[in-house]
Design the sequence.
């Protein structure tokens, strides 16, 4: 009985704070956000997530942060591979897309840009994006990363309409496509 | 068989109880909260720039490398707090954090009055005095009520080009962070 209780108790807690889809997080494709993380009255699960995460959260009036740890096929992001981030983003004053190690440190080339910034990327005629993140040269908008091992992509939308009324606003997040390893 | 099922059911119920306890007490037990990290760098009544993100270096607050951050710590026991000044004509946002790291208020320059930031933080007693007009404040002061006397105000500013980053950081550091005279 005790083994079952401990497994369920700690297992559920680990799941709730890592995946969180059933308790407070919202998932759109490979992207996950905790919409209530920046609210004045977060629910207990979001409060626990904030305590465990220790990050300086964006306030609800400032924007929303989406994090991807896998590509659109569910495979963990790996620095050996080249990824194409393809699609459109919700309406926002601007956004940034940052590759980081799981501990939050930057993995971009030291003498290059740390991230993509919406004001400084080339777009297709229809406004869609094609961004590449890889260690090897890629066409169009390319961000060079360094090192080995897993990484995360953080998409910060500043002054955005995502999660403000129409839930469909968040469904326009780009896909993350693994191209080569 | 029935006894085994009863033990399993009891285990499930006890597991759910453990889960709820873990979720509820985690915020009070977590050692590396955002507040403990801000406490290490921010000073009371002083605007402090947070270190820019460096390649490969730890980024415990998970700051956005594109932005410049300034933090102002206020102790409301000695009076209402104020953060004020002029900011560059670019995107900026301001958020107020309580000791648990919860954002109790946030806004952007689009919702505020352009380049001018004038934010006042009041505890419950001071808010009551404000309503009774026993505290004089300037017109246009953005009023935030806090349940706690210890708060952090963080300003995020987006330099439109890397070339202006240092100049904008210097302007951000000039924000006045202090207690209002009552």
Sequence:
């Amino acid at each position: 009985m005790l083994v079952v209780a401990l497994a369920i108790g700690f297992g559920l807690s680990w799941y709730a704070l890592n995946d969180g889809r059933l308790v407070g997080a919202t998932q759109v494709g490979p992207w996950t956000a905790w919409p209530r993380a920046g609210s004045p009255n977060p629910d207990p699960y979001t409060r626990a997530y904030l305590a465990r995460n220790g990050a300086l959260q964006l306030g609800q009036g400032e924007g929303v942060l989406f994090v991807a740890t896998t590509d659109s096929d569910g495979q963990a992001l790996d620095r050996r591979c080249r990824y194409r981030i393809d699609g459109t983003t919700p309406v926002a004053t601007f956004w940034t897309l940052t590759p980081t190690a799981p501990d939050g440190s930057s993995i971009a080339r030291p003498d290059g840009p740390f991230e993509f910034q919406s004001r400084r990327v080339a777009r297709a005629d229809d406004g869609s994006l094609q961004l590449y993140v890889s260690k090897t040269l890629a066409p169009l908008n390319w961000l060079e990363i360094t090192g080995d091992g897993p990484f995360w992509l953080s998409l910060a939308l500043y002054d955005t309409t995502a999660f403000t009324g129409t839930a469909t606003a968040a469904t326009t997040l780009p896909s993350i496509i693994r191209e080569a390893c | 068989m029935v006894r085994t099922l009863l033990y399993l059911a009891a285990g499930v119920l006890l597991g759910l109880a453990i889960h709820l306890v873990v979720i509820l007490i985690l915020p009070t037990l977590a050692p590396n909260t955002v507040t403990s990290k801000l406490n290490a760098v921010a000073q009371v009544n002083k605007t402090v720039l947070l270190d820019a993100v460096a390649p490969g270096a730890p980024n415990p607050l998970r700051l956005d490398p594109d932005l410049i951050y300034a933090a102002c710590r206020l102790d409301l026991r000695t009076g209402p707090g104020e953060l004020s000044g002029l900011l560059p004509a670019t995107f900026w946002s301001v958020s107020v954090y309580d000791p648990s790291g919860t954002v109790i208020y946030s806004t952007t320059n689009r919702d505020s009055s352009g380049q001018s930031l004038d934010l006042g933080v009041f505890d419950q007693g001071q808010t009551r005095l404000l309503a009774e007009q026993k505290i004089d404040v300037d017109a246009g002061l953005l009023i935030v009520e806090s349940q706690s006397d210890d708060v952090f105000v963080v300003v995020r500013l987006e330099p439109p080009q890397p070339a202006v980053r240092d100049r904008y950081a210097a302007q951000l550091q000039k924000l006045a962070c202090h207690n209002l005279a009552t």
In short: Residues 2-18 of chain A form the longest helix (17 residues).
